[in-house]
């Protein structure tokens, strides 16, 4: 494999991770993770109710399934991920919501198995921070987008992650999570680089709208989801991956103990910058 091939196809290997990790992602919906895109979708749906939307790197598919609800029954969502093992989980999730205007397909963002100009909307959420060549990925997503269509992406910037109070186990989780991303060639500054990647990927500045949001975890329900999700992941099959990655049993127990203690703190705060871009082709 040439250096270029290796650069353009390698990405975080989620394939070794368990169902539990993806279950953790299912609290994400179109409403809490793609709110910046909803007004645009509403207007496209009005003029083109039969629109086709591609979701790339969709993981457990909860954002895809709720996007399918948003665009309505005449539209169609193609939910894709590099990892074939996660797609049945995404399908089960869509079924649990009664969503039927959706199909599932394995796809690498670097080599999408679709013709040029195939989709009205191409979307991804938290993908580019996990691939080694994000600008190539954007170029490929733009290739399959119809002229006049919309590409949308939202990326967190892990270096802006703030956790309070600084319980040692919470800080260890933050470091572990960041180390895993780096070890697999991902980026901790995806949010701040998103606009640069879009320009390198072939979009003109005049085609791009940028907005910034955050992930804020202070409310009871989101605190619970976040912290109990971490503890569930580390006590499930993924514990083995964490041990192999270098965390000790004691450190894992400390992370679980402190994340659960953090949920009970009234001053518990966790947030991260999110950059959102919309590119009109
Ligand atoms: C952090 S998860 C985000 C999943 C989902 N978009 C969400 O927000 O819940 C990143 C996803 O990107 C997928 N992924 C990683 N590299 C990829 C690639 N080269 N092509 C397509 N998907 C990829 C992973 O398998 C994983 O499901």
TrEMBL record:
Gene Ontology biological process: methylation
Presence of keyword Methyltransferase: yes
Residues of the Methyltransferase domain: 48-160
Lineage: superkingdom: Eukaryota
GO MF annotation list: methyltransferase activity
Keywords: Methyltransferase, Transferase
PANTHER family (UniProt xref): METHYLTRANSFERASE
Name used for this protein in its record: Putative methyltransferase
Taxonomic lineage: Eukaryota, Fungi, Dikarya, Ascomycota, Pezizomycotina
């Amino acid at each position: 494999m040439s250096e270029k091939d290796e650069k353009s196809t390698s990405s975080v290997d989620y394939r070794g991770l368990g169902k539990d990790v993806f279950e953790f992602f299912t609290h994400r919906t179109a409403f809490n993770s793609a709110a910046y895109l909803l007004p645009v979708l509403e207007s496209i749906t009005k003029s083109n109710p039969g629109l086709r939307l591609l979701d790339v790197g969709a993981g457990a598919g909860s954002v895809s399934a709720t996007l399918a609800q948003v665009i309505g029954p005449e539209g169609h969502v193609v939910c894709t991920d590099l990892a074939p093992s996660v797609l049945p989980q995404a399908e089960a999730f869509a079924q649990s919501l009664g969503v039927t205007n959706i199909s599932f397909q394995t796809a690498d963002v670097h080599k999408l198995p679709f013709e040029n100009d195939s989709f009205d909307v191409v979307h991804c959420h938290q993908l580019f921070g996990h691939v080694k060549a994000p600008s190539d990925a954007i170029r490929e997503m733009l290739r399959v987008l119809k002229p006049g269509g919309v590409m949308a992406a939202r990326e967190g910037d892990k270096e802006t992650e703030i956790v309070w109070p600084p319980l040692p186990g919470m800080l260890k989780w933050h470091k572990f999570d960041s180390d895993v991303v780096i070890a697999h060639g991902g980026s901790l500054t995806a949010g701040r680089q998103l606009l640069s990647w879009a320009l390198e990927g072939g979009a003109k500045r005049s085609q791009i709208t940028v907005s910034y949001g955050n992930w804020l975890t202070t409310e009871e329900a989101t605190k619970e989801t976040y912290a109990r999700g971490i503890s569930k992941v580390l006590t499930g099959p993924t514990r083995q991956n964490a041990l192999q990655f270098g965390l000790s049993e004691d450190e894992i127990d400390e992370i679980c103990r402190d994340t659960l203690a953090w949920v009970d703190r009234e001053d518990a705060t966790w947030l991260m910058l999110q950059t959102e871009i919309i590119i009109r082709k």
